[in-house]
C-alpha cells in the first residue's frame, strides 16, 4: 500500500481511551449511520474494554454526555446464549489483527468469529465470518444500546428470510426527549431459523416482539459460510429506512461497499496534503482531519425527506439536510475549518440551521436529531452563523439569517417553546450582565443564569460578532448597539480580586447586582466548565479593553506567562503541558492554568499574538500539540464532535480563527515543511516552512506572500480563498 495513501494514514483508534469518546468503526463522511463495536463505555467502544457486546449502527464522535446511541447492535454467536442481556452475552476479542481505517473496521472475536465493518451514508454494514462448517447466529438487539443509553420502547419484526425491520425509542443526548429511529436490516443470503425474545424470554419461530423498556430482539441462524448484514436507519418512517437500504446497498456485496466508502474517504482526506517523513505525524494529522469530517451528520433520507423541529416531514430538494450540532464546541474551530475546506457542505449546514429556525421557531444551541436539548450555555449559534456568512455560505439568505439571529440575541423563547435560547437575556439586556442564580428554572440540562459570569462573556462575544454582520448588511443602528453590548464583559471585571499575585478578574454578580461572595478565580461558581482564569481570555473581540483591565501590555503578557507556565514550556514543553496544564477530562474547576482538554480557552494561545507577542503563541501551540499522539489516548479530553481535532488541524497548518466573524486567521509556526490545502473552488493554499522541525521550539520570523493587504500576523480569508502561497520563515529558540 502506498505510504502516502490518506486512508492508510488514519488510525481510528485515536481517541478511544481517556474519554476522547471517539469510535473506531466504519462511517462515511458526515454519515447518518455507522458500524462500530460496543463495549462497556457510554460512548460505545473503549480500547481497554475486555468484551464486545455487539456492533451498533449510530454513534456520536467525541461527545461528553450519556445517551450516545449504539442503536440496533448485532452480535455473531455460534449458539444461543442463556440470557439475552448483552452485558452478559458479550464476547471477548483480540486486538491482534484489529484494523481501524476510514470506512473499514475488522476484529476477531472468541470462537474464531471474524467481523468486518463498512458503511454507506445511511447504512452500517458487517460481514460475519464463522468457523468452517459451523452454523452462524446473529443476535439483533433492539432493547439495548450503548451503556447508559436508555431504550424506552422497541419493536422488531421478521419480514422474510432475509429481512428484519423495527423501531427503537431512545433518550436523546444530554437532557433531550425520547425519539424514534426506524431500521431495516437485510442479509445477503437467507437464514434457516429465527426467533424473537422479550423480557419474558426467547420465543423460537415467533416473528414479532414489541413493547416498552426491557430486553427485546431477534435471532437468525444461517447455514455455514460468511453473512453480510446491512442495516439502514431513518428518523422519518419505516419506508425511509427501507428506501435508504435499497438506494445505497442494493446489488452490492461487502467488498464493493467497502471500496466505495474508502474511495469517498480518500477523496475527502486528500483535500489537505502535508509533507512529512514521520509516520506518527501523518497519523495524528489525518486522523484529526478524519474526525473533523464525521459531522454534522446527514439528516435527510435518500429521497430527501427529513423530520423537522416541528416533528413534521420535510423534503430537502437538491440539497442535504444536516443535523446534530454541538455548537458550544464547534463554533470555535470546527465550523471554520469546514467552511474553508468543504464549502458546499457548509452551505447546506447553514441552510439546515435556518430550517431549524423556520420549523422550530428559534435557533438551536445543542441540536440532537430533531430536537433542542438546551445543553451548554451562552450563545454559540451567533458566531457559528456569522462565520458561515463571513465565509460566503449564506448567499441569498443573509437577511433571513440576520433576522433569526437578531430574534435570538434580543429575545427569549416563550415558556411553551422547547428552546431555551438566551435565558439570561431579560437581566442581561436591562443590566448588562447575566445574573448568577442556581435556582433559575431550566428546560434541559443547562440554563445560562446557572453560569451567569461565563454566559455574560459568551453573550458579549456573540453580540460583538453579530455587530460585524449588522454593519455589513447596512443595519447601522443595530450594529452600534450590538457593539456596545459587546463590551458588557467589562461589567463583571472586579479590580479588587487578587489571585496568585495578579489583580482583577471577571466575577459573577447576583440578581441585585452585588458581587458573589465568597469568590475565588479558581472556583466553579458562575462559570461553565471552567474558572475565571480560563474565561478571562474570552474577550478576543475587545483586546484593548482587556489590556486596560489587566494593567497594560506588560501586565497582560505576565499573566499569560503564568497562565501557560511559559518559563517551564521553554525548558521542557511536553512535560510541562502534562504536569501543569492537563487534569482529568472532566476536572474543569480549581484551576489557574490553560485547560487544553476543554473549549472555553482553546483560543487563549493566540491572545499572545493579539497583544503583540506572536512568538509566544508559537511556543505555546507547539507545546499543546504534544498532547496529540498516535495511540488510543491520542486526543486530549472529549473530541466534542471534531472540535479538538479541528483545533489540531489549524494549529498544525500555522493559522487559527481566533476572533469569530472577522474572517481573519492569526498565524503561528506550522509543523510541516510544506502543506497544501485544496479548496473546492480549484484554488490552493500552499504553506511553506522549509525550516520546520517539530523537535525544536520555533517561532515565526516572517510570513511572505503576494498579498499586499495582509498585516504581518494576520491572514485574511480573501487571500486564502483566492489561492496563495505563504512562505514562513522560522527561528529556532535555544533552550
UniProtKB/TrEMBL annotation:
Organism domain of life: Bacteria
Protein name in UniProt: Glycoside hydrolase family 92 protein
Alphabetized SUPFAM superfamilies for the sequence: Six-hairpin glycosidases
InterPro entries in the record: 6-hairpin_glycosidase_sf (IPR008928), GH-type_carb-bd (IPR014718), GH92_a_mannosidase_put (IPR005887), GH92_N (IPR041371), Glyco_hydro_92 (IPR012939), PNGase (IPR050883)
Cytoplasm in keyword set: no
Gene source species: Lentzea alba
Lineage: Bacteria, Bacillati, Actinomycetota, Actinomycetes, Pseudonocardiales
PANTHER family in alphabetical order: PEPTIDE N-GLYCANASE PNGASE -RELATED, SECRETED PROTEIN
Keywords: Hydrolase
Entry GO MF terms: carbohydrate binding; peptide-N4-(N-acetyl-beta-glucosaminyl)asparagine amidase activity
Gene Ontology BP term (one): carbohydrate metabolic process
Domain called Glycosyl hydrolase family: residue spans: 241-731
GO cellular component annotations of the record: cytosol
Domain Glycosyl hydrolase family 92 N-terminal: 10-234
